[in-house]
Design goal:
By secondary structure, the chain is an alpha/beta fold. Helices cover 25% and strands 38% of the residues. The chain has an 8-stranded mixed sheet with strand order 7-6-5-4-2-3-1-8. The relative contact order is 0.22.
Length: 130
């Protein structure tokens, strides 16, 4: 289970709406199972209407910050401009099984998933007001 503030949940939905019909993407930062902030990143994939690739510079910078005592990289988010908020065939093909959280935004909803070694697993979550 992960927890996320209502304002961050709203921000994820907004980022997807603003990026539509392109895919938005970025990092989920926090501690333990608590998502404390979002780090939007450029989608550097050549076909941003159907795929995402988080700017490697943003990813490296976030991991450096985490190693220096900053928030941990819990996972990432991206949107599906068409289709449901669940892992696509492309998502499954690019998954690493590293246990990270994937938030997939589509159809005005957020699907929460764990990139588990045996494949994606649905992840429960709670929303809080702080």
């Amino acid at each position: 289970m992960v927890t996320i503030a209502r304002r961050l949940e709203a921000e994820l939905l907004s980022l997807a709406a603003v990026a539509h019909p392109q895919e938005t993407c970025g990092l989920l930062l926090g501690e333990g199972a608590r998502i404390e902030s979002l780090h939007p990143a450029a989608n550097v994939h050549p076909d941003t209407a159907r795929h995402f690739e988080i700017d490697p510079r943003a990813l490296v910078a976030a991991h450096r910050t985490a190693r220096s005592g900053g928030p941990q990289v819990l996972g990432h988010y991206h949107s599906h401009p068409s289709g449901p908020p669940e892992p696509s065939a492309t998502d499954r093909a690019h998954a690493s099984g590293d246990g990270r959280v994937w938030a997939i935004i589509a159809e005005g909803r957020i699907g929460w998933w764990r990139d588990a070694p045996a494949g994606f697993e649905p992840l429960s979550y709670t929303v809080h007001d702080r």
